Amino acid sequence: MASERYELNMNMKCVKYMIFVISITFAVVAAMLLSLAVAIGNLFDDFQNFIDSHFFVPPNLLIAIGVILLVIAVFGCVGALKESTAMINIYGVLLLSVFVLQLAAAITAFVMRGQVEMMVRQKIFDSMADYKQQEGYRNPIDMLQNTLECCGVDGYTDWAQFLPSDGIVMEYPETCCAAPPIDGECIPRDYGCYSRLSWLISQGSVLIATGTIAVAFVQVLGAVCAFMLASAIRRAKTLRATRRWHLQQSLGIMTKTIEPQYTGMEKSEANVDPDKYLPTSSSVI
């Protein structure tokens, strides 16, 4: 009995500290996910004119998951230290719930990665087509070419469709120039913006997907450990309650007052000799 109780307590302690360590790890991972999601969100914001709005869903969802994981980590630490079965069970359920959200974010990021190429190419062409007509489009395309050090979609020759040329000297935006123009002569950059921007967006989507999947599988381990800990705590508490009950029963039997059948020594009815009296008979007193 003692060895079984010792083994149960040791197992519960191991699982408890494992939950505590996993919760601390989740807190660190959640902070990393938040920083990653914010960085990717800011990257997408810089090129928002060339990215559809639904591409912002995965990073925003990842930010929400990071905040939720921080709260769950604190909840798990408190539950493990207090050995609360209810808190540990809720901790496991919350981890599984966030696991579903992370799978949704990862799947969404992978699906959107396949839409990047067509979206980026079309967005850049639309901005180049409106470069002269609408002043508001000039800043995004200039910012894109200046930031990524690129020119056009696939190359500088794409601007021939949108800017006038005399057949000899071709006009480019100033941001296409590899160096500041000298005497009005611009040497365009060799690289197009399509390949660079699509690579950035694709890499951001891959980072979101792989990061969420990696953390999701660790969460499954945390949920399993949480349910194991809750079961161990329940067994330990049941064993303690049973031992306490047996102890109370034993103490109750040992301290129980035995009431005598007689309160005094009276003359025995079985005494047929009238000359014999018990110690409490009136004649003795």
Would you mind describing this structure in some detail?
The radius of gyration is 40 Å and the shape is rod-shaped. The chain is 66% helix and 0% strand. It has 285 residues and is mainly α. It has helices at 2-46, 57-82, 85-113, 116-129, 138-148, 193-254. The relative contact order is 0.13. Helix 2 packs antiparallel against helix 3, helix 3 (85-113) runs antiparallel to helix 6 (193-254) and helix 4 packs across helix 6 (193-254). It contains six helices and no strands. The longest helix is centred in the C-terminal third of the chain and has 62 residues, at 193-254.
Q: Which value, in Å, is the CA radius of gyration?
A: 40 Å
Number of H/I helices: 6
Mean pLDDT: 76
Structural class: mainly alpha
For the sheet with most strands, the description reads: none
Report low-confidence residues grouped into runs of 5 or more: 262-272, 276-285
Strand percentage: under 5%
What letter string, H or E per element, gives the SSE order?
Answer: HHHHHH
Q: Could you tell me the number of beta strands?
A: 0
Percentage of residues assigned to helices: 55-70%
